[in-house]
Amino acid sequence: MRAFCSNLAIHISEHWYVDNEFQMEEAKNTARAIVHIGYDGRVHKYFKGPQARERYENEVRVLRFLEERGCGFVPRIVERDDAQLYLVTSNCGARVDRMSDQKKEHIFAELEQYGVRHDDAEVRNITYSTQLGRFCVIDFEFATILAPGYPASPEMKSIADRSQWEAEA
Q1: Is the pLDDT of residue 138 over 60?
Q2: What is the pLDDT of residues 23-52, one digit of tens each?
Q3: Dihedral sign, CA of 132, 133, 139, 145?
């Protein structure tokens, strides 16, 4: 058994133990975030690495903005813990492995109609929801709200030497 980055979660074997409930195994574990899907379908995301706080705050800000504008093909915030950089959102379906450039561009252009440019407009950030019967967009850490008066999105930094990440976090 090993401790995780907060007292909220510990990893036991292939499952997560969070708030007295077992969760499904990791969906993603990268240098910037750990994501797992709970048995209830919710997406649990822990931000880590360089610019973790900036990326967390930006994702929360953008998701709130899109919800206020009625964008129905992005996750909804269910819960958050600002101190732990922990975000729980609704599930927007299964990841998409590949699609045509034309379809991808159409999906991200549709998002811009709601006043948000994704800034990481790649297929890895598109899911398909069978409940909605449509493609959805996820991962708004580096997205930009195009309406006046909102702060700029965090600049995506590349740090090759990962030992420097602790100083940047």
Answers
A1: yes
A2: 455 677 888 999 999 988 999 999 999 899
A3: negative
CATH code for position 97:
1.10.510.10
The Cα 118–Cα 129 span in angstroms is 19
Phi-psi region of 128 (alpha: psi -120 to 50; beta: other; left: phi over 0): beta
DSSP, residue by residue, 74-89: S--EEEEETTTTEEEE
What whole-number distance in Å separates Cα of residue 76 and Cα of residue 118?
16
- Token pair recorded at residue 57: 């705050």
What are 63-75's pLDDT values in tens digits?
A: 999 999 999 999 9
In Å, how far are 58, 64, 153 from 61, measured between CA atoms?
5, 5, 10
> Does a structural domain hold residue 150?
yes
Position 119 in a domain: yes
pTM for the predicted model, two decimal places: 0.79
Q: Assess contact for 152 and 144: CB atoms under 8 A.
A: yes
